[in-house]
Amino acid sequence: MDGRGWDPHENAKIRGEITEMDSPGVQDEYVELDGYDEKTQKEAEKRLQEVFEKIPRDISLILFTSREKNAPFNSAAREVIRLVRQMTSKISLLEFGLDHETARKWDVRVSPTLLFNPEKYRIRWLGAPVGEETKTFVEALMMMGYGQVNMGEQAGKILEEIDSPRHIKVFVSPSCPYCPQQVVNALKAAIMKPEIVSLEIVDIQANPKLAEEYSAQSVPQTFANEVLVAQGAQTEELFMSSVLRLEQQYIFIPDDDAPLIETDLVIVGGGPAGLTAGIYAQRSGLKSAIVEKDALGGQIATTPIVENYPGIAQAGGKVLVELMVSHALEYARIFQGEEVVDIATGDSIVVTTSRRRFQTRAVLLATGAKHRHLDVPGERRLSGRGVSYCSTCDGPLFTGRKVVMVGGGDSAITEALHLKNIGVDVTLVHRREVLRAQEHLVEKLQQEHIPVLFYTVIEEIAGKEGVTSVTLLNLKTGKKRHEKADGVFIAVGYEPSVELARKIGVEITPEGYIKHDAGHRTNIPGIYSAGDVEGGYKQIVTAAGQGAEAALAIFEDLIHPYWKQ
Ligand code: NAP
């Protein structure tokens, strides 16, 4: 048998032994992580089957497993691969043990590791492509199977400039809604330039030691040639620039000759306000384009559970996002992973994004809000190293460990409950005596016996490579104490994202929100606002309502432009 050949006996042996060891209970956990019911799952499979059937190119997958290590991840990886293999004969699978000569040939040491067409690409997946990562896995297969990478012209130009080896590592977790965007960026680079770009996708849950070695305690986190080049997801252009320059890039200025799309309305932001506005505008007959630089859904994408959206008694945040996005897609065009960098106002409005320009008649700023910082020593330095603002993304790495959650609002309580639910030892720290959160959530907090330190603030977060302790100050007694902690989760509210609004001269209130009238009109004709960027109650349902109102006002104004009267 040659190094890569199929040895049915060996394979059957490995499979048999591992199957006996696997715990079906653990695998069930992954099915739950997906958050879909059976009917949705079946529909998704059917749609996938239609696309997979037409794949023109063969894809050879090689899975390496060890029966001693990560059995639940091994079986989860097998299960996902089995599902896609049922849809097409173009995908083949070989499976070997870590002690097999094939593992040595490809220098594979971790179980599970999945290689994709290793004679052609240097792409490996360390872990199982489950949860959010299943989408990425499917996209990887599509790109390889069709031999096509859908990359923007601007990003393509930057990738062209990379002329020496880049070894990219992206740390991900199955519950992180931002991770797929970053992994897809990296896949594009590794598929387009296989001779110099290699990629390792590292699941932090399956590889906690490797995550610890890189101090990667938040996801996504990207390294290129062992240099940290990104914390969080990036647009395609910023990703390619960061990999080219080997340092995180924050600004990308597109070429002037970016292609132009004509539309009636550009909606900046793909949260509930923007998505609802897209539905209402298009139904009123306005051609609409929603542009979102990060994950669609805004803050809901990382909300563990939503229980106050009418008609939906309880749903995971990302499930609600999927529903909203698929509804919006029936009407508006969505440009995700693309950042609006400028808006030229006047008789004709031109919106410049990282990939193109839109000539439009109106713009709706639904840019939402970004999380607030504590601004205490150690917070920025240890961000991604134990300091986190997203419990759904990073929580799983802290299972069985001790963390503090800071804040007394709905977010802090919802997230503390989520952490407790996944086995994290969480203590809530709040600066006042009374929690601001809804009574219903406060009751749950008590039922779950989550300890709360009232009148307490964090003065300092300490640790070298990662968080090891916090200094707590009791505001009533003035006493300080050091508390051991492996992580600090911060949920102390949001600040409106008004940078773009400020840049184009939109008036801002003293509280920092976009100033607007009852029709969501700003001081600049043709520019409107909706959602959390306007202040107010900041609920999903109010943001959706503001998006609808703004879209209807825009429709009326475009028929009877008030600025021309
Ligand atoms: P929030 O309601 O503004 O609460 C922020 C919390 O952080 C407050 O308890 C505040 O303390 C505390 N805080 C602020 N700055 C701090 C600092 N520097 N140090 C220590 N503590 C600080 O923010 P949120 O919880 O993120 O919620 C935002 C909005 O989303 C709200 O309208 C909320 O109702 C909504 N939301 C709803 C749900 C839900 O319905 N399930 C879930 C999440 C969010 P004080 O209380 O002393 O001001």
Please tell me about this protein's structure.
With 565 residues, the protein is α/β, with parallel strands linked by helices. It has 3 domains: 8-21 and 34-245, 3-Layer(aba) Sandwich (Glutaredoxin), CATH 3.40.30.80; 260-370 and 494-564, FAD/NAD(P)-binding domain, CATH 3.50.50.60; 387-490, FAD/NAD(P)-binding domain, CATH 3.50.50.60. The protein is built from 17 helices and 29 strands. The strands form 7 sheets. An 8-stranded mixed beta sheet has the order 2-1-3-4-6-5-7-8. A 5-stranded parallel beta sheet has the order 14-11-10-18-29, covered by helices on one side. The chain has a 5-stranded parallel beta sheet with strand order 20-27-21-22-23, with helices on one face. Helix 2 packs across helix 4 and helix 7 (153-161) runs parallel beside helix 10 (236-245). The chain is globular. The model is unreliable at 1-36 (pLDDT under 50).
What CATH calls the topology of the largest domain is Glutaredoxin
Which small-molecule ligands are present, each listed once? NADP nicotinamide-adenine-dinucleotide phosphate
The chain-level mean pLDDT equals: 90
Our count of helices gives 17
Spatial strand order of the main sheet: 2-1-3-4-6-5-7-8
CATH class of the largest domain: Alpha Beta
Largest sheet: 8 strands, mixed
* Helical coverage, percent range: 25-40%
Q: What is the strand tally? A: 29
Poorly predicted tracts of residues: 1-36
* Overall tally of structural domains: 3
Intertermini distance: 82 Å
Protein structure class: alpha/beta
Q: State which percent range the strand residues make up.
A: 15-25%
- Principal-axes geometry comes out as globular
Rg calculated over all Cα atoms: 24 Å
